[in-house]
Amino acid sequence: MNILICGAGEVGRHSAEVLAEAGHSITMIDQSPIRLAEIDEAMDVRSMLGDCAQAESLIKAGADNADLLIAATNNDEVNLLAASVAKGVGCKTVIARVHRSGYYVDRGLDYAKHLGIDHLVCPEYATAQAIAATLRSPGALAVENFAQGLIEMQRIVVGRSSKAAGVSLRELKAPGTSLIACIERPDASFVPKADTVIEVGDVLTVLGEAKGIEQTSKFYNPEHAGRRRIMIMGGSTQSVWLCRELRRVGAAIRLFVDDEARAIELAEKLDGVTVINADVINSEVLQEERVDQADAFVAATDDEETNILGAALAKTRGAKTAVCVMQRPTYLHLLEHIGIDRAFSPRGTAVGEIVRLLDTSDVRRLGSLSRGVAELYELHLGDELAKGIADKPLMQIEFPPLCLVAAINRGDRVYIPGAQDKFEPGDVVVIIGPAEVEKPLNKLFGFKNGKKPPVMADV
Prior knowledge:
Rossmann fold, 4 domains
């Protein structure tokens, strides 16, 4: 593919690394000669000095014949304009990175549709979803999101006081809609059957709708129930997205912002969030605000070194969990040694989302369940369904052995289906199945060649 990337910052640079390694032809456009010189030294890509919001610059870079343009500068308006102009001059597919919710969330105008942009990517929103999912379910060993964050997968240890202990799956009455995809025990990991009895200490891989997964998590591990008390450092866009995600699930939040004007602005903007104008690093505010009673502390400023210092300080002062937001992998190897529990990278999130958007295969492998017991696959159904699945309830479809429909994304709705549900044209389906089942699934759903993805690199 012939790909143009606007902006040689962290996201643009990392996108170029991943896509160039996958064999694509990359052209980087930026207004900074210093950044482009660094790109020329580090990577085998073409670089061009220019204003990516100008049609003249984009045409000179080859946008009129490009397969893809990724607008990834640090300015939302420039990204939107660059992507729209590139589409106007003939670029096949355009992706724009945005920071602010006003552009990403439809508030009176669908900016992507209005400007002719194929996809908007907001790494801060996706990162906020990932952090919030981890913090709101402390009993979960791991958390993953699918279907634009509407379906969540968690690995949960069954607690001693859980009502699920000693109950078979057939008799289980868990709250909400969820599915146990895998059970891990010291001597085995397996996909459970209807008569499988859940035991204390079992590690369950559970899929459910994100809006109800917290209740599901509490059902299996009541010991970790209760309102979450979260402290966040930084007045960044990332912090704003995270506050909104955590407020949605009822967390009690204290937000520390060292700039007074920004603190006042966020206090007016974020309902239900206690905003404190203070410098966490150079004051005793953490002790004064009882960080030792916080369930988690998240360092989410725009400066990595400040985040590392803040998270490490909170951990030493008693925070149960310390989380750090980082763009670059430079310091990742140090975090475990200084007590920081988790790190999240908006840069990695953005590039991962771009790679997924470029994957045009009908059957996509999303990842593995524990110990390789099963795989998760995503299928995009076309306008017409194959004869083997059209007008049939799921229980009558002859799926490959050990395959299970975990979720259906239909328009704005995502749900875990029952045996009587049916597929419809345009559905996006998540299926659990054994390894190497892509070919049988392609055959069942009438996919001719699977449309091999153009990008295969890991991020």
